[in-house]
Amino acid sequence: MNEMNTKAMYKLSYGLFVCTAKRGDKLNGCIINTAVQVASDPNTISIAVNKANFTHDMIKETGLCNISVISNDAKFELFKHFGFQSGRDVDKFADFPKSSYELSDAGIPFITEGTNACFALKVKQEVDLGSHTLFICEPTFMTVLSDTSSCTYEYYQNNIKPKPQAVGTTPKGETVWRCTICGYEYVGEDLPDDFICPICKHPKDDFEKIIR
Ligand code: FE
Q1: Is the pTM of this model over 0.85?
Q2: Is the bond preceding residue 42 a cis peptide, omega within 30 degrees?
Q3: Which residues, including other chains, have CB under 8 Å from residue 62's CB and lie 6 or more apart?
Q4: Distance from C-alpha of 202 to C-alpha of 132, rounded to nearest angstrom
Q5: Does residue 130 sit in helix, strand or coil?
Q6: Which is it for strands 109-111 and 207-211: parallel, antiparallel or unpaired?
Q7: Could you tell me the distance, in angstroms and rounded to a whole number, from the CA of residue 83 to the centre of ligand 1?
Q8: CA 78, 7, 54, 144 torsion: positive or negative?
Q9: Cα-flanking dihedrals φ and ψ of residue 158, to 5°?
Q10: By three-state DSSP, how is residue 147 classified?
């Protein structure tokens, strides 16, 4: 029993959430799959946020964030908007429809479309986990927005994420590595071992080779 088959990790089930924060006038948000209720008295929610995400730094500095629970009504556009671009490069709320979010008392957005519940969280403890920081939080507000089921990672993979297009062979016979998580494509014969997807931050293991 000394196997380390990392595919076992894919058997863990996860929900999907928009994690939003505010620092100064800047509003931002990212997609996470790591919001979990970890205690009931007092109610406690933990979230793990990748340090590469701009939202991570905003939560670390302000100690506040909101979590909107993504439902099966969510469109791929929501994942693309919050998951496939960085708040370092774009203002994610500049072009996000005003009708799709509201602000909490702290001025942090809640996503109200394609979601079924939201929480305002106050960070009580932080644990450095290497790639991620675990924020252990106390909810200061929570509400239900819809009766639609929560979107699991598996549901997203099977029903929301567009199916990869068929690929053939280009005249140049290029090798393309596609991120199986977000669809980002890297062109080149070899994908470096330490390659990290610039979009979703997943490692080389999550890329598949495509010849076209
Ligand atoms: Fe990716």
Answers
A1: no
A2: yes
A3: 21, 22, 23
A4: 12
A5: coil
A6: unpaired
A7: 9
A8: positive
A9: -90, -30
A10: coil
Rounded to the nearest angstrom, the distance between the alpha carbon of 190 and the centre of ligand 1 is 17
Q: For the chain, which domains are there?
A: 13-158 (2.30.110.10), 164-212 (2.20.28.10)
Protein residues with C-beta less than 5 angstroms from the ion ligand 1: 179, 181-182, 184, 197, 199-200
| Residue 56 near residue 49 (C-beta atoms within 8 A) | yes
Identify whether the C-beta of residue 17 lies closer than 8 Å to the C-beta of residue 32.
yes
Number of neighbours of residue 146 by Cβ within 10 angstroms: 16
Contact 67, 18 (CB under 8 A): yes
Please write the tens of the pLDDT for every residue from 194-207: 998 888 788 898 89
Judged against a pLDDT cut of 90, whether residue 187 lies above it is answered with no
Answer for the pair 165, 208: CB distance below 8 angstroms, yes or no: no
Q: Which segment of 60-69, 123-132, 177-186 scores lowest on mean pLDDT?
A: 177-186
Q: Specify the pairing of strand 175-179 against strand 115-128.
A: unpaired
> How far apart are the CA of 202 and the centre of ligand 1, in A?
6
Three-state DSSP at 37 gives strand
3-state helix, strand, coil in the chain (%, to 5): 15, 40, 40
- For the stretch 13-52, pLDDT in tens is 999 999 999 999 999 999 999 999 999 999 999 999 999 8
